[in-house]
User: Which sequence fits this backbone?
């Protein structure tokens, strides 16, 4: 909705999502970026959310692949490093073409998002050893 701060001007009704003000007027606008602009600002959290089904599928594949190695790792930190390295390798075919890709940031984001699943997976597997 555009509102005017000047009392002599009649009100104008205009609806749009994001408000900002310029010279006494309040405008609502959407920000639209092109694919080229998006490529310059790769955000691992957005990429993971956009491809969540694929990431979840690769998480299950990683769990299947690493299930036999749980008993080989006495410390959780060793298993966590191994698990997320394998997880990154499973996702590699999907992110390798991304420009401005930051491997460390992506791995950190994966660790933050799937830390609980990895921890539960490890300790459930350790009980069977």
Assistant:
């Amino acid at each position: 909705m555009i509102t005017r701060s000047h009392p002599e001007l009649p009100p104008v009704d205009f609806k749009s999502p994001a408000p900002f003000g310029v010279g006494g007027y309040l405008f609502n606008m959407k920000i639209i970026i092109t694919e080229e602009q998006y490529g310059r600002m790769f955000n691992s959290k957005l990429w993971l959310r956009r491809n969540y089904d694929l990431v979840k599928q690769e998480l299950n594949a990683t769990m299947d692949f690493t299930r036999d190695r749980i008993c080989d790792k006495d410390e959780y930190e060793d298993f966590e490093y191994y698990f997320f390295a394998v997880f990154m390798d499973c996702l590699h075919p999907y992110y390798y073409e991304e420009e401005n890709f930051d491997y460390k940031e992506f791995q950190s984001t994966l660790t933050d998002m799937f830390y609980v699943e990895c921890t539960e997976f490890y300790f459930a597997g350790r009980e069977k050893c």
